[in-house]
Amino acid sequence: MNKHSASPCHLGPKSLRLAAAAFCTLGVALANTASAQDAPVPVTQQSQQAVSKPTTGQSMDTVETTYGTPIEAVPAVGEPPITRWRYADFTVYFEHDKVIHSVVHRS
């Protein structure tokens, strides 16, 4: 073959640079994924686990029986109706009469 023939294995300098950039990007992405698995749990998530609070799906009656009368009961708003009960350490959000979320207060 002469130097002007197209070879199926020949890559020009621009193609080599693009391929190298693609491999470097892939390597960085994989390295970031691996290091994210070893990341420590933020303090806010640790505090969410440390306080006993209602779980999703519990009824208002179960929450009140377990945790007592709330400090504040904010009436339902919107459709579906969302009610909020505030306790000393956490706030509970209900849709109709079922818990949809519980949030621990920041210290």
From TrEMBL:
Source organism, top-level taxon: Bacteria
Keywords: Signal
Region Disordered, residue ranges: 37-61
Signal peptide: 1-36
Biased amino acid composition, Polar residues: 43-61
Name of protein: Uncharacterized protein
